[in-house]
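Lecture notes, unit on protein representations.

Consider one protein chain, 77 amino acids long.
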Amino acid sequence: MQALAAASKTVDCLKLVHSFHCYFLLVGDFDMPIIYQVHRVRDGNSFATRRVDAVQKGNIVFTLLASFQFIAYLDCL
């Protein structure tokens, strides 16, 4: 959930996640911090796409691809 939260912080508050896929690539280490790197794949008027890599010891251990869609009827908080 931290990866999705990191991606959400990089899009307009009127765009909500409507699809995401995640993959565990390597075994992580509970004793090591995780660095989340957010990549802006696309920013459009209605949709935004983000890729998030979770990195430990220089290796990507987890990756997430999320798509966000503009929702016109919500107020920005």
